[in-house]
Fold this protein.
Amino acid sequence: MKKVLIILAFLLMNIVAFSQTANSKLSLELSVGKLFSPYRFYKNHTGYENINLGLAIDMTDKMGISVSQSYSRAYSQISNNRILVMLTSINPYITFFPENKINLRISAGTGLLYFYTKSLYESCPLSDHVFGIPIHGNIAVFYNINDNVAINLNFDSHYSFLFNKTYKLIINDKYYFKTCFNSVNLGLRYRF
Amino acid sequence: MIMKKALVFIALSIIFVSCIKYPEPDIPAGYGIPPTYTNYCILEEIFGKVKEDTMIYKTYYVEVYFSGNIVKENTLYSTVDCSKDPNPYCALPYEQKYFLNKIKNIEISANKPYRNQTQEIADIKYFFRNKASIYDEKAYFEEELGYSPMHIVFTEPPDSSQNFIFKIKITDDNNNIFTCLTDSVYIEKK
């Protein structure tokens, strides 16, 4: 995990170092932060790292569309259970104050939630794959360092409707068909 | 057109799963009667108990209690706090543990010859408890342990009336072995 983070950091530093000023429309975003899992079945899980990779295309000065992929982990001490949460989403967005040094971007969309859950007790291995449809919301604040590079602070939330919930995964109760994960990330954006 | 159909499908899926309401407790609760709820566990230890120290074989049975670790927590009922509830009839929910281990084999033996000069006991019925505390007889193979305790009933009397200690050995489908001994019990052959 550490190696991957170091490689990604170097990649970003290279992009920043070789960046050129241009009237660009496509941007790449990478941010790292923490996951929060406050809801229903997973509310006693402690969230760990969250990595978010996004590609955004400006349609106009203020509007565009982004595709994002995030990875995160959480762990419950009570049930000794670990989950890997992966979210793929497509999100239309609106940018506020695009001409300023600090921009605000609000986006909402949907996609696919996948998570892998695994009990860490060796005597009785239990694991499962779960899929869901998320409603994804994101608020991002950008501080533009130059025309190409910006620092971004992301507040991300996805409320998901699970449609593959098996007996082996979680308590077989309809209440747990819905779940919500939040995250706060800090990272960089590079505009091509 | 395909996009439109996909959107309709997604919308219907969301509506379908949104219609599902809150969970119900295992057993309906009334005023001051706590609801029971289930946490799912895996087995760590078993304990064999006998009700009395002298019994006739027809009324004799061993209770096997299970203990273990939670692997799936029911987070709705496990976080209820009556101290913050204005309802004077608030009763703390009662946890029931369901054990997920599937049984591969159960062996029961006595500390001395029980029947036909053998210590192994073959004539046995197994009664599994459900969440409403009703016991059903089942064959154990590939059956989950379920709710604690399980009742083990001997269907044949011993060769003679005497004291016995029974050893219970349960093997699950992951080849974990759990054993326990019961207290000494005097079984009358009548």
